[in-house]
Amino acid sequence: AQTVTQSQPEMSVQEAETVTLSCTYDTSESNYYLFWYKQPPSRQMILVIRQEAYKQQNATENRFSVNFQKAAKSFSLKISDSQLGDTAMYFCAFVDYNQGGKLIFGQGTELSVKP
Amino acid sequence: EAQVTQNPRYLITVTGKKLTVTCSQNMNHEYMSWYRQDPGLGLRQIYYSMNVEVTDKGDVPEGYKVSRKEKRNFPLILESPSPNQTSLYFCASSPMASGARHTQYFGPGTRLTVL
Description:
heterodimer, A: four-stranded antiparallel beta sheet
């Protein structure tokens, strides 16, 4: 079964510093997509970044970047220059093509950015 | 603006009173899906649709119905709501074209309380 694990339930970081959120996954597929979603207090689910497994280059979106280690099945999110607006729950997710494109989510990491 | 909209955003109802939560997207996406989010259980897929007139069950379809008569709309129907359907519901859509396939964009969520 495809699984996604986030081992850090809570993290905190000072404003302007860098933080890394961890995610591991398990799949037998060779080509797939991985995502990080952000859920702020408004509860909206916002796509942060996407990584295609066949691309060796790590994805970046402004202050957000990933460290994708395919062999280790690891997909961490780095947030640089943290801002107060980054305070949110962050979910790592994996698309299960064998189950109709369902997103499988990790348990989430609650990130607090402190002034 | 490209978006997924849901209505209503908040709803309090009573057991057995049929209700519909609407979902609409303006991105011409083929794929649409409904999830529910519950504390301790994460996000679980209810139903999904690969295209017009094509729908299939997700992980927790009991007590729900869907239809996909038009590409842009994917309503979620609760024929006889029960308290265990109290939850936060998300509609999501994604393109099916390779390269962007299953990058799911979420609506703002619908908070449903069934008394």
